[in-house]
Write a structure and sequence with these properties.
four-stranded mixed β-sheet; Butyryl-CoA Dehydrogenase, subunit A, domain 3; single chain; Ribosomal Protein S5, domain 2; two-stranded antiparallel ribbon; alpha+beta; 12% strand; 9 helices
Length: 285
C-alpha cells in the first residue's frame, strides 16, 4: 500500500497452485479499464497458478466529492411535486433518494487525472507485490528441489541394492532347485541329466531377468538429476511428472518379474518415493 496525493492505494496479490495461468483482478468500478494492463503485467512475470489481485483506494481530500447537477435535481423535484401524494405531504422527498437518481451526481471533473494517478500507483504497487510473491516462490522452489533431490537419492540407493541383489537370485534358485531335485531323485532312485537342470535354470533366469529395467530406471534417474540442476527458465513440471510415470512403470515391472523378497521390499520403497515425486511435481513450474 502507498499514499499519494491524498489517496491511499492498496494492492494485494494471492497465489494458489494451478497447472495453468488464471488471473482474477478486482478493481474499483471507475478503474476497471486497468484490468487488461494489470493482467498483462502478471503474465509477463508469472507462467502458472491461480492469481487473485485485489486493488482498492480511499480518498481523504475534497477532490473525492462528486458534483451535484443542480438543474437535473431541480427538474426531478419539480416533477415530483406535481404528484398529488407528494403535493399533499403524504409522501416526503428524501435527499438521499434524490441524489441516487440518474444524472444528479456527476463524477469529479478531474476524472482523467485521477485515472492516470491511480494507474501509476496501482501498477507500481503490483510490481512490488509481484517481487514479494516471486521471492516467496523462489524460496519455496528451493525447498521443493531439495526434497525432490532427497527422493531421487533414496531411489538411487534402493536401485543399487536391487542391482546388487539381482545376480544372486538366479544362483540361489539354482542351489535350491538342485538340492530339491537331488533329494527327490535319491528317494525315487532315478537320475537327471545335467542338461535338463541347466535348461530349467536358464528358463528361470530369463523369466526373472530385470537388468534392462534396472538400466532404464537408472537412466531416468540421471535425466531427473539433470532436470533439477537445469539452470535455464524452461518449465520442467510436466516433464518431471511424465518422467515419474516412466520410473513407476519400470519399478512395477521389476516387482512383477522378480520373486525375491528383498527386491520386492526395495521396489515398494521406490514406488513410495515416486509417488512423493509425482505429488511434488504438481507444484513445479
Amino acid at each position: 500500500s502507498a499514499p499519494e496525493g491524498g489517496t491511499h492505494y492498496f494492492v494485494e496479490v494471492r497465489s494458489l497452485n494451478n497447472k495453468y495461468f488464471k488471473a482474477t483482478i478486482r478493481l474499483p468500478e471507475e478503474f476497471q479499464g486497468l484490468e487488461a494492463e494489470m493482467e498483462t503485467r502478471l503474465r509477463e512475470r508469472i507462467t502458472r497458478g491461480t492469481i487473485t489481485v485485489n486493488a482498492r483506494c480511499s480518498e481523504t481530500t475534497e477532490n473525492a466529492a462528486h458534483e451535484i447537477n443542480g438543474k437535473a435535481l431541480e427538474r426531478y423535484v419539480t416533477q415530483l411535486k406535481r404528484l398529488p401524494m407528494v403535493a399533499s405531504g403524504e409522501i416526503a422527498l428524501e435527499v438521499s433518494s434524490l441524489l441516487g437518481l440518474p444524472g444528479v451526481l456527476q463524477p469529479p471533473s478531474n476524472e482523467e487525472e485521477r485515472f492516470e494517478r491511480a494507474r501509476g500507483a496501482f501498477l507500481g504497487l503490483l510490481s512490488r507485490a509481484l517481487d514479494g510473491l516471486i521471492g516467496m516462490r523462489e524460496r519455496e522452489g528451493q525447498a521443493l528441489v531439495e526434497d525432490l533431490e532427497r527422493q531421487r537419492a533414496f531411489i538411487a540407493e534402493r536401485l543399487k541394492l536391487i542391482a546388487d541383489r539381482a545376480p544372486t537370485v538366479v544362483s540361489e534358485y539354482e542351489t535350491r532347485l538342485r538340492t530339491r531335485i537331488e533329494t527327490m531323485l535319491r528317494e525315487a532312485g532315478v537320475s537327471l541329466q545335467p542338461v535338463d537342470l541347466i535348461r530349467e535354470i536358464a528358463t528361470y533366469a530369463e523369466r526373472t531377468d530385470i537388468a534392462e529395467e534396472v538400466k532404464r530406471l537408472g537412466g531416468h534417474l540421471e535425466q531427473f538429476a539433470d532436470l533439477l540442476s537445469n539452470g535455464n527458465d524452461r518449465p520442467i513440471g510436466r516433464t518431471l511428472d511424465f518422467l515419474a510415470q516412466e520410473m513407476l512403470r519400470e519399478t512395477n515391472t521389476i516387482a512383477s518379474k522378480s520373486p525375491d523378497a528383498t527386491i520386492a521390499r526395495c521396489a515398494v520403497d521406490v514406488k513410495g518415493a515416486i509417488d512423493r515425486i509425482k505429488e511434488q511435481a504438481q507444484n513445479v513450474e
